[in-house]
Amino acid sequence: MGSKPSPDVRSFAQQVAHVADDQYNLCAPAKGETRKAAYTEIENTLSKKTDLVDALKKAFAYCDGAYEALTDVSGVETVKFGNSSRTRFCHVELEFVAYLGTLRKRGWCTCA
Prior knowledge:
The protein has helices at residues 12-30, 41-45, 49-69, 72-75, 88-97, 102-105; strands at 78-81, 84-87. The protein is mostly helical. It has one domain.
């Protein structure tokens, strides 16, 4: 899980950890919460497969609450994210596609 195609690319384990981190980073604002851990806490601290699988399961379960709580009204409410503001729908949209990275990197996401 630690091999990399090149030094400037995440290893598979780091990519899995990154996905888990982003579950918390993007779903916390959608839930009206603030993540207490560092932005890359999981990526910086876990590397074993069993730990990463467990972290990923917990992270996805955390986001389930964000999805379940969204309504037509709450979804369009604006919440703070860093120095910008986004709707709750945008946060869960970004969470859903964050592991691919393509929408934001290529400018395909309408909630920049």
